[in-house]
Amino acid sequence: MVKKIVLAAMLVAAVIGLAAGVSRAADTEAVGGEFLIADFNTGEKPNNIGGDFGAWSKDPTDFSQGCSEAFDSVNRHGSTGFSMKLDYSVDSKNPAYNGFWMFLQNFDASKYDNLALWVKGDGKLGYTTVFKVELKNASKQVGRYYVTSITDSWQDVVIPLKDFKGITDFSNLSEFVIVFEDRIASNKKGVIYLDDIRFTKNK
Question: Are 24 and 90 within one domain?
Fold first, then answer.
């Protein structure tokens, strides 16, 4: 009898937790028809939908290239919380590329029109004005888009999903990736800040 009561209590708690998660997701989406994927405001993992994230490098044994991530409370979009600071280098005699990955938990973005994110470069440490954004889905399609004209001021980069070349199904997105490439980076070393990554609808 006691075991049945404990089991029932656990089931109720699970249902309440699930409902709370759905409620938070609905609240996130309700703001201007946007769905917030990551605002980094807790200063901790995971992102707003439960997905892990981190920096990656083509060759971790080549110390002349690489990327590291950190939460930043000074260079952030908005008055509170954190941004994501990406300190990268593709300044190597070897082929070099690296960046940042984030799991999207098979998110259904098919009812949205755009991927949007706030971006800025570091005016003191330098930055590339161009980098690649990738979206991957559960069917292993990879969509690619090059973001250009980055400055050292915050700007809202809005990328139409239809402009991602190589992906046709946005109903089960698995990963968001930033790529810094030696062949296109306007600065081989530098710092880029990201904030408020989200999917949006056209007005």
Answer: no
